[in-house]
Amino acid sequence: MTIPDFASNGCLPPFVNGNPTNPAHRSPYDTSMFQVVERFCSSGERAKLLLGLNEYRKHLFEGGFVSGSQWVDGSFVEDVEAKHNRPPSDIDVVTLFHRPLKYQIDQATWVDDYQKTLHREFFDTGRMKATFRCDTYAIDLDAGASSLVRDTVYWGGLFSDIRGSTEKKGILCIPLAVDKAEFFAVRDAIGRNCNV
């Protein structure tokens, strides 16, 4: 789907085509990294944030997180320059992941590995923001149904809320990369849009 135009509030609309009941017209909007670059790489600061997101996605890929998607939100996908006269400072990302293949084969070590190393290495907000300029969160798609529903409702609701308001906004959904060539192609696309 094409990323919709901003609504009058400077945010992506929560639905398009006047039909909030059609899932195909509702947020989160399925898109690609290339469409995100085409739409939001409009300044040097935004280009640097996109380079960080691209590197974060590469980091996940190298860690075996290749099945799932990412919700992208925050001031990065808003017209924050017009609304607040400033560039976005980071990119908010929730990664909805299936566990890496080794944990699909042998599930016994997942909980221990995730608590001791994997969360810190791939999803810890402070560490990832310092490295990739992404505010990172995660939803384990292989968790039990109760946990999955709770986390999805929470993050979907939070990401679609406009801060300080009862209004709703739209978010983007990008599939995780399955081919490392994507990272080089995205980096080139960012460079073509903004000389960084």
Descriptive report:
This protein has 196 residues and is of the alpha/beta class. Helices cover 44% and strands 13% of the residues. The chain has eight helices and five strands, in the order βααβαβαααβαβα. It has helices at 33-40, 44-62, 80-84, 101-105, 110-122, 125-132, 145-160, 181-193, and strands at 29-30, 68-73, 91-97, 134-140, 172-175.
Write the layout of secondary structure elements.
Layout: E1 29-30, H1 33-40, H2 44-62, E2 68-73, H3 80-84, E3 91-97, H4 101-105, H5 110-122, H6 125-132, E4 134-140, H7 145-160, E5 172-175, H8 181-193
Parallel strand pairs: 1-5, 3-4
Antiparallel strand pairs: 2-3, 2-5
Helix pairs in contact: 1-8, 2-8
Name the helix and strand elements from N-terminus to C-terminus, one letter apiece: EHHEHEHHHEHEH
The structural class is alpha/beta
Radius of gyration: 17 Å
What would you call the shape? globular
Q: Counting H and I runs of at least 4 residues, what is the number of helices?
A: 8
Mean pLDDT over the full residue set: 94
Give a short account of the largest sheet: 5 strands, mixed
Strand order across the biggest sheet?
Answer: 1-5-2-3-4
Helix content: 40-55%
> Hey, roughly how much beta strand do the residues contain?
5-15%
Provide the descriptors you would attach to this structure in a database record:
196 residues, five-stranded mixed beta sheet, 8 helices, 44% helix
Describe the structure in brief.
The chain is an alpha/beta fold. The protein is 44% helix and 13% strand.
